[in-house]
């Protein structure tokens, strides 16, 4: 399954074989919103753990995205050649990718907070002394904090994901609800 971009930078729909698709899930929107915001998004999971979104399968476009995805999985099962069962090794890849994504997001957020703190310190040093190490405060320390946070958060996530997952499969009603 490849996800590519056209010459304008827009994401093209995923292309690939039906066997490369691990699952299609309707998930709650990660961030809240107003009254007109989407409450659910549909995500296509690949066997490698990647998860491109399916933009037109949400609760804005459809009355019941859960039923639509269930119908889509049923229709695709005939052509797929294998069942839509959960496999522990793919679930671990999905969790690992989600953890890496969150670690990078949190590392960027932390680096921006450090940059803002260093900017305040720079202003205070300039007011007090008339000079300050600008490159050190605005480039080196935020970059080092990003590297340290990214390494620490990735290490923390790797320690959370089991090496050999043997999780029981959730009941079918819970899985699609």
From TrEMBL:
It comes from Streptomyces liliifuscus. The chain crosses the membrane at residues 103-128, 134-155. Keywords: Membrane, Transmembrane, Transmembrane helix. This is Uncharacterized protein. It comes from the Bacteria.
């Amino acid at each position: 399954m490849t996800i590519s971009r056209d010459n304008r930078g827009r994401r093209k729909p995923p292309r690939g074989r039906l066997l490369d698709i691990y699952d299609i899930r309707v998930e709650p929107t990660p961030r809240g919103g107003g009254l007109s915001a989407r409450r659910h998004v549909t995500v296509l999971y690949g066997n490698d753990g990647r998860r491109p979104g399916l933009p037109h399968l949400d609760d804005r476009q459809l009355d019941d995205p859960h039923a639509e995805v269930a119908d889509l999985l049923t229709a695709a099962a005939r052509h797929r050649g294998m069942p839509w069962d959960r496999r522990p090794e793919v679930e671990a890849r999905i969790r690992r990718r989600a953890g890496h994504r969150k670690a990078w997001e949190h590392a960027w957020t932390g680096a921006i907070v450090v940059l803002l703190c260093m900017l305040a310190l720079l202003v205070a040093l300039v007011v007090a002394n008339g000079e300050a190490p600008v490159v050190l405060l605005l480039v080196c320390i935020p970059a080092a904090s990003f590297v340290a946070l990214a390494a620490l958060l990735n290490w923390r996530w790797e320690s959370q994901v089991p090496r050999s997952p043997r999780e029981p499969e959730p009941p079918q009603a819970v899985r699609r609800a």
